[in-house]
Design goal:
Layout (H helix, E strand, L loop, with lengths): L1 H27 L25 H11 L12 H4 L52 H5 L8 H9 L2 H10 L7 H13 L7 H6 L9 H13 L14 E2 L15 H4 L8 E2 L21 H10 L12 E2 L2 E2 L5 H11 L5 H5 L8
Antiparallel strand pairs: 1-2, 3-4
Helix pairs in contact: 1-6, 2-6, 2-7, 9-12
Bound molecules: heme C (2 copies).
Length: about 350
């Protein structure tokens, strides 16, 4: 009797376990609702191969905030991509990773990634699902390997459960890890700034006369490169910065090997620009004033300087002090307070 009873308990345990694994995906996971902002261009990321789900996003968020993705178990993605600064590394011109090692570039804002065809200043990858491989393997960033990470995560029951809930095959593996991170990065959408409300005619979108004047100037002087409501045309361009001799970062040419791409960098979005200082690929400018002074006074000549910055009157963009002030006033309307305080983007246990 005793034996039969124990066998019974054992069977119940086994079947409970199987039940758990089989039913858990459908029971608790639901489609995650995501709307493309009406003033945005078409989405680039293909959601059909990785549909957003509540558990997929939750897993992605946990991974993004988890130091175990690095060799020291301290440096998470969010260590460098901090939400209050639109997911940049506040106060660092060049990024700091494991053992306080200094990288070569300023941390980019992670926002509206689903709408981008390229990632990183040199466009090192065009696939959001593989973006994480770069920081994970970079010795100055996370300095870790994917198999090590999977080993660490597999030992953690909270992760076992979440992977089972998030994906049909339930495996704790690198494919699912990348897909979950992408799901989280897709929802990092910044589209609720004052400017967005202005464009969509929503309450809170009334521009002051100075902001409206700044927008007019911006459309005239900056919009050809910082285009669409993403504020980038996704091209690689040389905007005439003096070469930084300590880094000699050749930008796009480091990926393409084409000398005509020397010192061309991906045109960055200007969303949340008030929060993401310092500026440019090497974080050389601490303020928007210095950025504008560069465009006005200090654009350097290169054979492949962007033709837009070469005018009859010389190099750069003509602006009076008042015009610069108005442009900056306008740029501040791109700050999205809902984005930087959005609970969905913040890790909670
Ligand atoms: C040590 C700091 C650091 C860590 C950790 C880090 N990043 Fe980054 N991230 C950067 C820097 C610096 C750049 C710009 C690099 C470049 O352009 O070459 C960047 C760029 C990016 C971009 C490109 C954005 C764009 O618009 O092109 C994405 C996406 C991104 N990181 C996601 C992640 C994810 C996901 C993780 C975690 C797996 C992560 N990062 C970890 C510093 C970091
Ligand atoms: C010819 C194309 C072009 C024009 C015109 C242009 N930009 Fe840029 N801008 C770029 C490129 C390329 C970069 C990135 C360069 C780098 O990081 O090395 C950039 C970077 C910036 C940055 C730094 C962004 C960051 O996240 O670090 C700001 C701010 C900026 N531009 C503002 C402006 C303003 C304001 C105007 C108009 C007065 C303007 N730009 C005109 C191409 C352009």
């Amino acid at each position: 009797m005793q034996k039969i009873f124990s066998l019974f308990i054992l069977l119940v345990l086994i079947s409970c376990k199987n039940d758990d694994f089989e039913s858990v995906y459908e029971d608790v996971n639901e489609p995650y609702s995501f709307e493309i902002p009406s003033n945005f261009p078409e989405m680039h990321y293909n959601l059909e191969h990785n549909p957003l789900t509540t558990k997929g996003v939750e897993l992605g968020r946990k991974l993004f905030y988890d130091g175990r993705l690095s060799s020291t178990n301290i440096v998470s993605c969010a260590f460098c991509h901090e939400q209050p600064h639109a997911f940049t590394h506040h106060n660092h011109n060049l990024s700091h990773g494991v053992h306080d090692r200094v990288g070569r570039r300023n941390t980019s804002a992670t926002q509206n990634l689903a709408f981008q065809p390229w990632f990183f200043f040199d466009g090192a990858t065009s696939n959001l699902d593989t973006v994480s491989i770069l920081p994970i393997h970079d010795e100055n960033e996370m300095d870790e390997t994917i198999p090590n990470i999977i080993e660490k995560l597999s030992e953690d029951s909270a992760y076992q459960k979440l992977f089972h809930q998030a994906f049909e095959d339930g495996e704790v593996n690198s494919t699912n890890m990348m897909l979950a991170l992408s799901q989280f990065m897709v929802i990092m959408t910044s589209s609720d700034s004052k400017y967005d409300k202005y464009v969509r005619g929503e309450p809170g979108g009334e521009l002051t006369p100075k902001e409206a004047y700044g927008l007019e100037l911006f459309n005239d002087k900056c919009r050809s490169c910082h285009a669409t409501d993403l504020f980038t045309d996704h091209q690689f361009r040389n905007n005439g910065l003096p070469v930084n001799p300590n880094l000699n970062d050749k930008g796009r040419a480091e990926v393409s090997g084409n000398p005509n791409d020397d010192y061309k960098f991906k045109v960055p979005s200007l969303r949340n620009i008030e929060l993401t200082w310092p500026y440019m690929h090497d974080g050389r400018f601490g303020s928007l004033e210095s950025v504008l002074l560069h465009y006005r006074n200090n654009v350097q000549d290169y054979p492949n300087l962007d033709p837009i910055l070469r005018t009859e009157n010389g190099l750069g963009i003509e602006m009076t002090d008042e015009e610069m002030e108005a442009i900056i006033e306008f740029l501040k309307t791109l700050t999205d307070y809902e984005f930087i305080t959005n609970d969905e983007l913040y890790f909670r246990t």
